[in-house]
Write a structure and sequence with these properties.
The protein folds into two domains: 144 residues, 3-Layer(aba) Sandwich (Rossmann fold), CATH 3.40.50; 157 residues, L-2-Hydroxyisocaproate Dehydrogenase, Chain A, domain 2 (Alpha-Beta Complex), CATH 3.90.110.10. It has eight helices and 14 strands. The model has no long low-confidence stretch (mean pLDDT 94).
């Protein structure tokens, strides 16, 4: 049984993720962590959630705290603290402010819960995963981000709808940045075990439009309802279950990649990784030449921004 801690638990994503994670059979305790001054809100969220647990017969222990030492003993720490993206705002616009928050909380994890796995959700998630990795001092396998996992699920849903098949029959993934330079792997996409390009209907697949829909999905949701909640929350819970269940599933998450994808790497970015109780382990893959070129550009973009941000953080500390 495991203890799951959520930083940024007063935000919409953190709150819904907690509610969903409580349904995972491996979880015995959830700790909601917020900043000082948010005690009343944390208390209210916890009480409301406990009422929900009572209604459905869930006995997961739920606690809240503003004392960072209480994270001791955590098996997974979810980093959801930071400023939410607003309509019309690029994920990268959030970088420096959120990086300061992530750097601080990651140091706390390294000090008080060094045995934990960190799952980063805060945007821009690829860059924040690198920040969490550096400032926590944990091994690369113990720090990963939501990355393109949800993007991959969005594309999977669109493909299933086009071909009129159950989503479980579609296997696809998006690698690279969780953002504009994401790379759909059509070369690795199958339906019912059949390479998608071998299906006659593939010629009519609106590839460009589908990818654009995935890229702008979060923006559209934010414009319409203010924030993305249910998709990210369920995606987070899936990853938590994969880790705690030692499932060894291959999912596409933001992880530190060295040379697993055509010798391209030295950055945290969305890649296929085997996930289990020990953490995340990128899978070596070979992809089509045009996908390699796109992935290279995505890596260079994130690597540049990460380097610039690390420099700014270092200056802030001087």
């Amino acid at each position: 049984m495991a203890k799951v801690t959520i930083f940024g638990a007063t935000g919409n994503v953190g709150t819904f993720a907690a509610h969903t994670i409580a349904e995972i059979p491996y979880v015995s305790e959830i700790l909601l962590v917020g900043r000082k001054g948010r005690e009343n809100l944390l208390c209210g969220i916890a009480q409301d959630m406990k009422d929900a647990f009572a209604a459905c017969g869930n006995y997961t222990e739920l606690n809240w705290s503003t004392d960072i030492s209480d994270i001791a003993g955590s098996d997974i720490v979810i980093g959801a603290a930071g400023t939410a993206r607003q309509a019309g705002q690029d994920r990268l616009d959030l970088a420096l402010g959120n990086a300061k928050i992530v750097a601080s909380s990651s140091r706390d994890v390294g000090e008080h819960a060094p045995g934990a796995v960190i799952l980063m959700v805060t945007n821009p998630v690829d860059v924040m995963t690198s920040v969490a990795l550096r400032y926590s001092g944990l091994e690369p396998s113990r720090v990963f981000g939501l990355g393109t996992h949800l993007d991959s699920m969005r594309l999977k849903s669109l493909i299933a709808s086009f071909f009129k098949v159950h989503v479980s029959e579609v296997h696809t993934r998006i690698i690279g940045e969780h953002g504009d330079s994401m790379v759909p792997l059509w070369s690795a996409t199958t339906i019912g075990g059949i390479q998608i390009s071998n299906l006659p209907a593939f010629s009519g697949l609106p590839v460009v439009e589908m990818v654009e829909t995935v890229k702008t999905s979060g923006e559209h949701i934010i414009r319409n309802k203010g924030s993305t909640v249910f998709g990210p929350g369920e995606a987070i819970a899936t990853l938590v279950q994969t880790v705690l269940g030692n499932e060894n599933r291959i999912l596409t998450v933001s992880a530190y990649v060295k040379s697993e994808v055509h010798d391209i790497g030295d950055v945290c970015i969305g890649v296929p990784a085997r996930i289990n109780r020990e953490g995340v382990f990128p899978i070596p893959i070979k992809i089509d030449s045009d996908e390699v070129a796109q992935f290279q550009r995505s890596v260079e973009k994130i690597r540049r921004i990460t380097s610039e941000l690390m420099g700014l953080l270092k200056k802030e500390e001087l």
